[in-house]
Amino acid sequence: MIFEFSKKVKSKKFKIIFSNEQIDNINPYKLQASMQQTHSTNVKIVDENNLVSIDTDGIFTKNKDISLKIKTADCLPIFFYNESPFFIGVVHAGWKGLKEGIIENACVVLRSNIKDISSVQVLIGPSISQKNYEVQDEFIDYFESKFIASKNGKLFLDLQAIAASQLKSLGVANVKDVEECTYENEFYHSYRRDKTSRRLRGWIYYE
Q: What is the pTM of this model?
């Protein structure tokens, strides 16, 4: 099944598409860049000569002929796009990446390629919502209290709000969330719900 979120992007030229099937490449006319995601904070720029990135959780490109691929099953798929100069990226961020600085590292890459990153737009794709993401007491030490809700003695973390707050503090204010919960939607793969090894596959590319 295909899920397209391109309409949430201001420009009709940028495509953001997901599949819950094991599709290798959503657009056969594009080269595809992918990453071996390890919950790291490593972010890389890719081109036609290095399409597979090892131990990496964020990839960006200036090449309009490349699509960027991500796999998720509750973590945040964070898509970046900028028209002029052209620059797209995708970051895989769970609580560990958000805690240890993957957003900051992504913004370093943005600043090295775009003079004014306030023009950059961001879309957070399907991911687990706060009400379904229970965490342990130590998370109080990791994140500000405003991102943690308490209910019936349990704590729940808002990953999307953390990412948006970090981005805005670094100069990227145009952040949207598709507000689709992987835990609640049975058509999305969710590790927290099913302990599955299956992953949603997502892509961003320029049509």
A: 0.96
Give all strands (DSSP E) within the chain, no chain letters: 2-4, 14-19, 31-35, 43-45, 52-53, 58-61, 66-72, 76-82, 87-93, 121-124, 134-135, 148-151, 154-157, 174-177, 200-206
| CA-based nearest residue to 179, from 5, 1, 59, 20 | 5
Task: Give the C-alpha separation, 155 to 148, whole Å.
Answer: 6
Separation between Cα atoms, residue 19 and residue 9, nearest integer Å = 18
Q: Is the peptide bond before 85 cis (omega within 30 degrees of 0)?
A: yes
Predicted confidence (pLDDT) per residue in 105-152, tens digit: 999 999 999 999 999 999 999 999 999 999 999 999 999 999 999 999
**34 SS3 class:** strand
Placement of tokens 């737009």 in the chain = 121
DSSP 199: -
For residue 192, with 0-12 CB atoms within 10 Å meaning exposed, 13-18 middle and 19 or more buried, which class applies?
A: middle
40: tokens are 């790291």
Q: Report the C-alpha gap between 37 and 27 in whole angstroms.
A: 21
Domains of the chain: 2-128+159-206 (3.60.140.10)
